[in-house]
Specification:
Blueprint (H helix, E strand, L loop, with lengths): L6 E4 L2 H5 L5 E5 L7 E4 L4 H9 L5 H6 L6 E2 L4
Parallel strand pairs: 3-4
Antiparallel strand pairs: 1-2, 2-3
Length: 74
Amino acid sequence: MLMPEGFFFVVDAQTMRSEERPIVVVDAYEQPGRSFRVVPSEMWAVESNLLIANMDWEEFASECDDDGILRGAS
């Protein structure tokens, strides 16, 4: 099922194993399946900014650390 927002969050085994609990953000619209991870305290920024098109996917993805986790957007 496609989400009207164009993305969704997924909690997987890696989320549960990691102390930071990085949640997967999955694109369901522009390039379905691409993803990055975000720490729970920054989920609001991803959700809010993608919903109002204040920031786009590439901006968030470029802010991820080398391990593919977004810990805060600048």
